[in-house]
Design goal:
transmembrane helix, single chain, UgpAE/MalFG_permease, two-stranded antiparallel sheet, MetI-like_sf, mainly alpha, 70% helix
C-alpha cells in the first residue's frame, strides 16, 4: 500500500523546499543562465565592452581542431576513470566485506582519500611521479621503465587517471560496501550449500543485486570525470604535454581565464553541460533497463 505525506497547509511544502531551491537557483541556475547569455556575446579582455555575436562562438569552437581533439581526450579519460574506479572499488568492497579482524581499520583507511581535496590529491600524485624527485618514478626507473609524464602523453594521461580514480575510490567503495552488507546472508549461504563457488555466488547473486548501486555510481562517476577533475588536471599536468590531457572542463578554464576568451569559454561550458545532460539521459533511458530493482 502506497503511503503519502499529507500537509494540512498548502504553503508548508514550499517553505520546506525553499532553502534547497534558493541554493540551486543561486549556485546553478543563475551561473548557468549567465554562461548561456555570455556564449552569444564577445567581450574584450577587461570586460569593458560586449558585442552580441549570436552563434559565432559555437561555430568557432567546432571549427577548432584543438577543441574537437578535447572531445576524444575527455571521452577516453572519462571511460577509464569510470570503469577503473568502479571495478577497483567493487573489488575492494568485496574484500572488506569478508574481513573479520581489523575490519574497521581497513575500511577507515579506504575512506580517507575522500577527505582529501582534489587539488591536494593531484599535487600528491604529481610529486610521487615526478621524474626527478618522485619515489614511484625512481622505482620505475630502477625496473627499467623510463617514466616522464612531462614529455610522454601516455604517461601524463595515466597520471591523471590514477589520481582521479584514487580520489573517487572512497565514494564508490562506501556505496558498494553498503550494498553488499544489505544482501541477505541467507542467499549466499543457500548458494554455498548448493555447491556454488565464490565466483559463481558473486555473478549469480551479489552482482545482480548490486545493479542499482552500480548504475547510480556509473552516473556519478561520469559526471565526476567531466566536471570534478579540473583541479587534478590543473595541479598535475596543466593540460600537457601540449594539449594531450586538456579535457573539456580544463579547456573551459584555460580559454576563459588564461586566453581571456570569455565568450568562447562560456560557449564551451554550455556544450559541456549539454553533453553531460545527454549522457545522463541516455544512461537512464537505456542502461537503467538492465538494472534489477
Amino acid at each position: 500500500m502506497e503511503k503519502r505525506v499529507l500537509f494540512r497547509s498548502a504553503w508548508l511544502p514550499w517553505v520546506l523546499l525553499a532553502p534547497q531551491l534558493v541554493i540551486i537557483s543561486v549556485f546553478f541556475f543563475w551561473p548557468a543562465g549567465q554562461a548561456l547569455v555570455q556564449s552569444f556575446q564577445m567581450q574584450d579582455s577587461f570586460g569593458m565592452s560586449t558585442e552580441w555575436v549570436g552563434l559565432d562562438n559555437f561555430k568557432t569552437l567546432f571549427e577548432d581542431p584543438g577543441y574537437l581533439a578535447s572531445f576524444k581526450t575527455t571521452a577516453f579519460f572519462s571511460i577509464l576513470v569510470a570503469a577503473v574506479g568502479i571495478c577497483l572499488s567493487l573489488m575492494l568492497a568485496i574484500f572488506a566485506d569478508r574481513i573479520i579482524k581489523g575490519a574497521i581499520v581497513y575500511k577507515t583507511a579506504l575512506l580517507l582519500p575522500y577527505a582529501v581535496a582534489p587539488a591536494v590529491a593531484g599535487v600528491l600524485w604529481m610529486f610521487m611521479f615526478s621524474p626527478s624527485l618522485g619515489v614511484v618514478a625512481y622505482m620505475l626507473r630502477q625496473s627499467g621503465f623510463d617514466w616522464n609524464h612531462m614529455l610522454n602523453s601516455d604517461h601524463a594521461m595515466a597520471l591523471i587517471v590514477i589520481a582521479a580514480v584514487w580520489k573517487q575510490i572512497s565514494y564508490n567503495f562506501l556505496f558498494f560496501l553498503a550494498g553488499l552488507q544489505s544482501i541477505p546472508k541467507s542467499l549466499i549461504e543457500a548458494a554455498a550449500i548448493d555447491g556454488a563457488g565464490p565466483w559463481r555466488r558473486f555473478w549469480s547473486i551479489q552482482f545482480p543485486l548490486l545493479s542499482p548501486t552500480t548504475f547510480f555510481l556509473l552516473v556519478i562517476n561520469v559526471v565526476y570525470a567531466f566536471f570534478d577533475t579540473f583541479a587534478i588536471v590543473d595541479s598535475t599536468t596543466q593540460g600537457g604535454p601540449g594539449r594531450d590531457t586538456s579535457i573539456l572542463v580544463y579547456k573551459v578554464y584555460h580559454d576563459g581565464f588564461k586566453a581571456m576568451d570569455m565568450g568562447g569559454s562560456a560557449a564551451q561550458s554550455v556544450v559541456l553541460m549539454a553533453i553531460v545532460v545527454v549522457l545522463t539521459v541516455i544512461q537512464f533511458r537505456y542502461v537503467e533497463k538492465k538494472v534489477q530493482y
